Amino acid sequence: MNKGLFALAAVALLSVAGQTQAKQKVCVFDLLGKAGETFKVTEEWAVTAKDWQADIRLIPYQDEAKAQNDFEAGLCDAVYMTSMRARKYNRFAGSIDAIGGVTSNHVAQKAISFALDKRNKRRLLATVEGENYEVAGILQFGLAYVFVRDKNVNTIEKAKGKKFAYLQYDIAQKTIVDSLEMVSVPSEISDFVKKFNTGQVDVIASPAYAYRPLEIEKGIAKSGAMFTFPVVNITGDLIIRPEKFPKNFGVQSREWFVKQVPKSFTMVKRLEAGIPAKYIVQLPKEDEVRYQKILREGRINLTKQGVYDPVMMSVLKRARCTVERTSFECSLGGE
């Protein structure tokens, strides 16, 4: 009898050991692959994850679509990609990059901290087509500003009929671009700046993170500009299959990512400061407010259509009105 109990105990211990030793493969998208700043953050995360009984192997990707495809094919147990693309796996976190939803880096910092708050634990879990997913972290890429090849295209009215490269997996971008009577050109992160630099499109929206790696200066050097009005915020979501990771891994991971938020924004501000001042154009305040109202209406409609998560829309509004208390929208309902 004792021998039988001993054998069962040994099998159980070996089983537990096998679980803790199993490596978790994580597909990580970064424009610069291993050399990118985001990838370096995930390297720090992977080292810390050993304390949570995980054994992470990071796989770098410069092609976001391939990272997603490999994740869906089961080649990776987790994936780090833009939140817009990750919306498929979690609409709450994936809506943090709603059009016009974040108006400054300060607001973005508040929004990420709110989203990762432990009170939102259940909202960061989702089942899609029978598969379980969990958001284990959010990182900032940066505010996406408008770049134009011709700086005279400085109002929405002048932009009508101009070609805009939108990320084809984000229906929200196409909806807004079409509503502004611009020509929407489907693109990927890997080619939207190339289209801009070669004159295939007239307008793009991009964070400073992509400015040097994708050589945006080539497209604006002759007579272009960057307008400081942020049309969208770009973050990245770490999506895991929770059953592939140790118990409570997601909670521990999110707590770690919250602590990285200040460092993430220090990086963003440094990259934004690296864009030459000669290309930067500040829009008149009245134009900014007018555009915010247009984007707000678009956001509300997209939320009604089920594209954006209504709870996240309230989180974003709370973040905006915490920072910008006198904003026109803070006394309005609808979000």
TrEMBL record:
The keyword Signal applies. Keywords: Signal. Residues 1-22 form the signal peptide. It holds the Pfam family AdeT1_2. InterPro entries: AdeT1/2, TRAP_DctP_sf. This is DUF6091 family protein. The lineage of its organism: Bacteria, Pseudomonadati, Pseudomonadota, Gammaproteobacteria, Moraxellales.
